[in-house]
Here is the input.
Amino acid sequence: MKWSSVIGQDTVQEILQRCIVQGRIPQAILLSGNDGFGTMALAIEFARTVNCYQPLIDGPSIAPCGSCQSCTQARTMQHPNISIVSALPTGKLEGADELRKEWIDGLYDLARELALNGYAPTRMENANEIRIVQIRELNRQLSLSMTQRGRRIAIIANAEDMNVSTANAFLKTLEEPHGDTTIIMTTSRRDRLLQTIISRCQVITVPALDESTITDALVSRGNHDRSEAQIAASLSQGDVITAEAFLSDDVRSIRDGAIDLLRTALRGKEMRPALTAAVHEITGTRDRARCIAVCNALLLWLRDAYALVAGGSSARILNVDQQEPLERFASSFAAADFDAAYQALERAVRDIDRFVPPPIVMLTTMMELRTTFLQARTRV
Here is the structure.
């Protein structure tokens, strides 16, 4: 039995459901992975399930009924047992222990949106830090008597947003657990958490989703064209939220921009100013995800080109609308070392993900590709 609001992650779902069915629910859980892998969706569905009055049970599997009072409350995040803590924008507090009203309203709206869609943004606009006052308020709430049966679930979104003071205050919360309470943290940057916090949690790694799962989800969730959904899924590095963002930005424009970048790199000897300008246009936004998407889009395009080199015009390709330009490219560079090109692009993705400056990575990579393909043309 799978949680309908969660995309994939069958193994993680089994782990969480089994601990509920067996009555061995941890005091603290750390879900390590990107939001787009499903960490928040899993946390919310776990909270709904443990509080459901009439859960559906099938052996080691369990799911909320969706119709009881508890499920109705959870659907709009008005359940007294479920709370979400997320980062706040930079700004002064109203008082020593008071939050601005607009922040409180913003957090409520964010929680309500997440209750409807676990793959919605998990931070308010311009938010960057979980404040110590939020942890103090959480402790106050947990100390109160429960007004409704079930189990308290406090979800800390993006736990890496806690600064040192907040993290130390939160550590005391973990050291003095409250009965019938579970704290679930989500993080995509486990390395930024205190080891003392990690050691007090049951750590569950939420892996990237496979491309077919993302493609199916994109088609069913947004009525997207399957071919575009496949391209977006291939660029997303297993992240549904990233894939949906690419579709909203027009994934084909990302792909076409990547192809234009390669064409610029393969121009004559005086191509360097044009290539530098093209790289600057792509990297000027400082959007690492978009730079990675450009590299992945080009990687997919080149794999299609090699498929045509190896199998002729009848070969199956992903970029079906690019059949003619791909065939021309395959004909011109049939002798190229495509493996070297793949490795250069894969290395670029790793470097950008490790915070190497994207302009340097992109320019270096395009020069590598230029050498690889022009050498092949020389040999021919």
